[in-house]
Amino acid sequence: MNIRLYRPFFFLVIFVFLVGCKSKQLDKEIIVDSKPNIIFILADDLGYGDVGFNGQTKIKTPNIDQLAANGMVFTNHYSGSPVCGPSRAVLMTGKHTGHCTVRGNPKWTASGKPVDLESKDVTVAEELKRAGYTTGIIGKWGLAENLNEGLPNKQGFDYFYGFNQHSPAHHYYPERIFENDKVFKLEGNDPQNKKGQHIQYLMTEKATNFINKNYKKPFFLYLAYTIPHFELTILEKEKEQYTNLGWPKRKMVPGHYRHDEDGHTTYAAMVSTMDRHIGDLIKQLKELGIAENTLVVFTSDNGHEYDDLKNEFFNSNGDFKGHKRDLYEGGIRMPFVAYWPNKIKASSKTDHISAFWDFLPTACELAGIKPSNKVDGISYVPTLLGNNKKQEKHDYLYWEFNESAGPIQAVRKDNWKAVKFKNKPIELYDLSVDIGEKNNLAEKYPEKSKELLYWIKNSRTEHPEFPLEKKASSKE
User: Fold this and answer.
1) How many domains, in total, are found in the chain?
2) Average pLDDT of the chain?
3) What is the pTM of this model?
4) By residue range, what is the domain housing residue 405?
5) 446 and 387 both lie in a single domain
6) Most buried of 76, 106, 169, 336, CB within 10 angstroms?
7) SS (H, E, C) the chain
8) Is 30 contained in some domain?
């Protein structure tokens, strides 16, 4: 009799071949039916404070808030970067920006040429495929500017629908879209005049189809929405709930981004549309009878861009300093909720310090395998299941970022946070009493500054395209 034994939270499946024979554990083969489905939903440029469970009062997010009410909220979860490209690379590879292949957006390289994921990179999709999962990405990939080895289908994904590159993902009525390795023309779509089929609805339709097709076996769906990234546009019917509320108008001027005229109502309606679509997907899981065997994660790739820090309306960054392109908390601390009925305790909250590079080892543990490559991440499965005593913790978290204000590096160690601009003194903050990073304590605590400066200097490998040198301005 052969026994395939997995971690306690999985179903135990026993195949009896010979009665009375001595049993033993098999490591090489995998029983896929015992593994949970994984859906990772990523918003684009959504701020920490843009969702109701983090204090938003103007934008309605009832379905995401229901995930929080029935799941676990992480209050100390960080993105991989304050911009989308490297943040997504970190998420996929389990390596922070000091080690991953993609450390900046396409044109912010030493040569000015985009850097993509390479064939040597091992993604979470590749890991899960060897554990028997069907893998799919729908939405913004953004890690194959050169349309070569960085393509999703070459990085472990069985199915892809969306944007390989950054610029096409800036428009919600694109003329063309990729489905696997083929480019399809979206008939009637006109990005300049915002006519045709809005991509948000098509992405949700494809996600629904992917789940319907693959729900009988374990699947991994990476649903990378482009809402609420600039440009700001959504169907007029979606804005109705936000009209006549007495909100001041914020006039948006169309350019590269073909914004709708009123920013406030459009931004809110975009987020609420995404929220409704997420609610529909959760309903689908319940109707298919797979909700209790599916982990759903919702978060954002980096801080918000829309809300004006000098005249905040939505308070999109909550109590934090900064937003997109900042290594202050507003640029990298993310809304994060995990939902898994009867596995994750409802209405739970954790202050466990975690980051995007933890997702790959987390997914591997859920699948009953170990990462095949060295990663910077730590699985947060123990936290999800309430086993806090078994949760391993990071010694520190590290980021680097280099656009027009850079290069900038940052480290968080316990409640201490350091931010270092090139050729400027280190900044030191105690997040336990100064979540807004208002009081620089570097001079008051020189030894602590020295300790964190060590990690800033010793947490990266050199990359020829991403040296920590000042770069000229560029536009994405």
Assistant:
1) 2
2) 93
3) 0.92
4) 398-457
5) no
6) 336
7) CEECCCCCCCCCCEECCCCCCCCEECCCCCCHHHCCEEEEEEECCCCHHHCHHHCCCCCCCHHHHHHHHCCEEECCEECCCCCHHHHHHHHHHCCCCCCCCCCCCCCCCCCCCCCCCCCCCCCHHHHHHCCCCEEEEEEECCCCCCCCCCCHHHCCCCEEEEECCCHHHHCCCCCEEEECCEEEECCCCECCCCECCCHHHHHHHHHHHHHHHHCCCCEEEEEECCCCCCCCCCCHHHHHHHCCCCCCCCECCCCCCCCCCEHHHHHHHHHHHHHHHHHHHHHHHHHHCCHHHEEEEEEECCCCCCCCCCCCCCCCCCCCCCCCCCCCHHHHECCCEEECCCCCCCCEEECCCEEHHHHHHHHHHHHCCCCCCCCCCCCCHHHHCCCHHHCCCCCCEEEEECCCCCCEEEEEECCEEEEEECCCCCEEEECCCCCCCCCCCCCCCHHHHHHHHHHHHCCCCCCCCCCCCCCCCCCC
8) no
